[in-house]
Specification:
about 150 residues, 5-stranded mixed β-sheet, about 15% helix
Length: about 150
């Protein structure tokens, strides 16, 4: 009886989204796209704060820092951000913001004056400096403002 209740509890937790199991690639440890916040809150005014509320997060699930120098983040229209000298720590997330700012260990800035990510559909592609695709994440919705990858 206890086993049936436990199975029911796990099934209910999974259905409600409480259990977030990694994909096979993530389970083994990888650098991957984590979240795209493609529709910044409020009216699209092109203010720097509005531009920076549009972002992509990249997560390192490996046990070591990864050098992202020369890696690129691209949308379907080929707007490209190229990482300069940047190491993403083990287990860390970096947020790639659209607007201007000062790069830190957790935020980098594209220094753009216009939005990159379409508010209805787009595809983010993360590539190594060699051009090898590391990960892609697509969305096709205006019902929410972000996508977990």
């Amino acid at each position: 009886m206890l086993r049936v209740r436990t199975l029911a509890a796990v099934t209910a937790a999974a259905a409600s989204g409480i259990l977030l199991l990694p994909s096979q690639a993530q389970a083994a440890g990888s650098v991957h796209l984590y979240k795209i916040y493609y529709d910044s809150p409020g009216t699209d005014t092109r203010s720097n704060s509005s531009l920076n509320a549009e972002y992509v997060q990249i997560r390192n699930t490996t046990g070591a820092a990864v050098n992202l120098r020369g890696w690129t983040l691209t949308d379907a229209s080929r707007h490209t951000y190229t990482f300069g000298s940047f190491k993403l720590g083990a287990g860390k997330i970096v947020t790639v913001r659209t607007g201007r700012g000062t790069n830190t260990a957790s935020n980098v800035y594209q220094n753009r004056a216009a939005y990159v990510w379409n508010n209805d559909k787009d595809t983010a592609t993360l590539r190594k400096s060699t051009g090898t695709t590391v990960d892609t994440c697509s969305y096709n919705s205006t019902r929410v403002d972000y996508k977990w990858c």
